[in-house]
Amino acid sequence: MKVLKWLLLPYMAVFIAAAFLWPKPAEGFLGESSRIVFFHVPCAWTSTLAFLVAAAYSLAYLVRRNPWHDEIAAAAVRLGLLFAVLALITGSLFAKVMWGSYWNWDPRESSFLLLIFLYGAYLFLRAAVEDPERRASMAAAYALFAAVLMPFLTFVAPRLTASLHPQTVINPQGKILMDSPTKVVFFGGLLGFSFLFLWMLSLEARTARFLRRQP
Amino acid sequence: MTSLRVPPSPHHPLPHSGAEGESGRVGEGENRSSSTLSRAWAVAAKDAAQELRRRIALASVFFFAATALTLVSFAIGPIGVPLESRAAVTSALLWIILFFSAATGLPRAYVREEETGTGLALRRVASAPIVLAGKTFFNFGLFLAIAAVAVPAFTVLLEWRIDAPGILALVLVTAGFGLSVVSTFLSALVARASQKNVLFVVISFPLLLPLLLSAITATVEASRGGLPGTALRVLIAYDGAASCAAYLLVRAAWED
To answer: Quick check: A149 and B245 CB within 8 A?
Structure first.
């Protein structure tokens, strides 16, 4: 993880510089507002990745009953919430520039807010149970149940009604509608944010393990 | 009605239940599934008998639905909803009333067992998936009963014409089933937590929202006489996903 930390520092610096300087702003968007895609989408992607990691470790907990897995799942949910809030903030900034208001009750905005509630509830559930083993079992069951129903919130519900949101990477045409420099920076951002999450997860999980071992 | 019996050994809590039964004989599978169903039905019947004995709990659910209906018709009745937005507004209001009325009754499924101290006995006489199925049956019945009272009253009070009542009934059944499965499972989760009632609302609303959105979309279509194909497919897919997940996870939620 030490190597990852030192590799991430120059990688993210280059990524941020490239996001602001290399690709031309996309057509059909006001000024430089389209550049937010390099930060907004990776935040949203990383939050989804974090929730999937939480589901995987929750399943591992239910199979092996190892408290370490429960701690990683809880840490992944906390980090997923952090990235989800960042995705919501960057999305709201874009909405203000493009549509004149920070919040428009767009189905995609609303579904992401509900995703935050969905996993915020996981933390409420953990706080409401005192016995550590029971808390871990219940939290794992909830995280897996939420992961099964999450696609209905993030993929299905926003597509049931009309949306202001620009076309997503997963679109009906099945094509990535970006020029080459935009594509390089965009996917570079997804990779960078994913590794940033993994590094933060290892920090969070190690802290949780340290606190558990304290008398 | 099938009765629930206390098993002879804690290691084989359901010797004839089908869930833990061990036999590969021909015809045994059919017996097993019918036994599982009858045990689930027995749990549902037990819950119904308990609720009917304590009439106040059931009455409070219907009283809540009546109060919400009256409130909505008081607020909207004199003003009226413009014709072009009537279907959307009334459908949303109907599902808000149904959701909150159900939310006063459905979470009690497991919470009542823990409060009255019968949870441990129930764990001994039936496996967690059977109890989940039984409690889901009861909750589904309760939801349909609420809908049977609330929907006709709502249409009369708000002078709302439904052009495809059969489709609306189908929407109520599919959405009501999903609502019952998720509520019953979450009831098992919160049953042994502190602040159960608040916690149930906090964890259920985001999970149920996709179902409610699809139900509202489908109700709008049904009220206009159309067939809500996409919304109905979403509801059926949601019901299937929620049922499978609840079945697989209920042991971790309730037995551990």
So the answer is: yes
HSE-CB of B196 using CA atoms within 13 angstroms:
21
Tokens of B233: 């497919």
Partner-chain contact B206 A114, CB within 8 Å: yes
Structural tokens at position B47: 């819950």
Q: How many CA atoms lie within 13 Å of A113's alpha carbon, on the beta-carbon side?
A: 12
pTM, two decimals, is 0.83
Banded pLDDT at B9 (limits 50, 70, 90): very low
The verdict on a CB contact (< 8 Å) between A117 and B205 is: yes
Question: Which tens digit of pLDDT belongs to each residue from A116-175?
Answer: 999 999 999 899 888 888 899 999 999 999 999 988 888 877 776 666 666 665 566 666
Q: Please, what is the angle between helix B108-116 and helix B165-190, to 10°?
A: 30
Around A192, how many Cα atoms within 13 Å sit in the side-chain half-sphere?
Answer: 23
Contact A161 B242 (CB under 8 A): no
- The radius of gyration of chain A's CA atoms, rounded to the nearest angstrom, is 19
Cα–Cα distance for residue pair B234/A48, rounded to 1 Å: 21
Q: What DSSP state is assigned to residue A25?
A: P
Report the C-alpha gap between B58 and B48 in whole angstroms.
10
Burial of A89 (0-12, 13-18, 19+ CB in 10 A): middle
Inter-CA distances, A172 with A73, A176, A201, Å: 33, 10, 34
Q: Is the dihedral of CA A41, A47, A50, A52 positive or negative?
A: negative
DSSP B179: H
Residues on A contacting B at a C-beta cutoff of 8 Å: 62, 114-115, 117-118, 120-121, 124-125, 128-130, 133-134, 137-138, 140-142, 144-146, 148-149, 152-153, 156-157, 160-161
Q: Which one of B217, B237, B249 has the shortest CB-CB distance to A141?
A: B249
Report the alpha-carbon distance of residue B6 to residue B21 in Å, rounded. Answer: 15
- Distance, CA of A94 to chain centre: 18
Across the interface, whether the CB atoms of A128 and B206 are under 8 A apart is answered no
Q: What per-residue confidence (pLDDT) applies to A171?
A: 61
Looking at this predicted complex, what is its ipTM?
0.81
Distances (CA, A) of B125 to B43, B74, B120, B170, B192: 10, 49, 9, 35, 19
- Among A141, A146, A161, beta carbon nearest to B253: A141
